[in-house]
Give the backbone structure.
Amino acid sequence: MTSNFTVISGYSGTETHDIGIELALEDSEGTVTDLTGWEIVFITQSLESGPMRKTSADGGITVTPTEGRILIPISVGDSRLLSHRSSLKYEIERRNGPQQRPVLSGTIFVNRGVNDD
């Protein structure tokens, strides 16, 4: 599945969500995808300091496994790291031992903010 979103540098969240990226995974029949035992990983293309990487294992992503819910917060600091680019690719995947499955991928568009903090 592919989805693009926009962040504004210097602000938290995305243009459409105050916290960041929020997903509720279901199969084609509407059955919730149980994420019990899966690690969720969010990674971007490389930035000047390397790729932005967050995982559920390191506490950077909140997962409610039996509800299939994933929350990836985008902090003010995160949006500032992205501000050197106008867009970049990202992927969200789930990992369980040798299994690795895509969840979502796309492009993050970055709008320059005019805040003063």
User: Anything to note?
Assistant: The helical segments are 76-82. The mean pLDDT is 91. The chain has one domain: 5-110. Residues 5-110 form a domain with the Immunoglobulin-like fold (CATH 2.60.40.10).
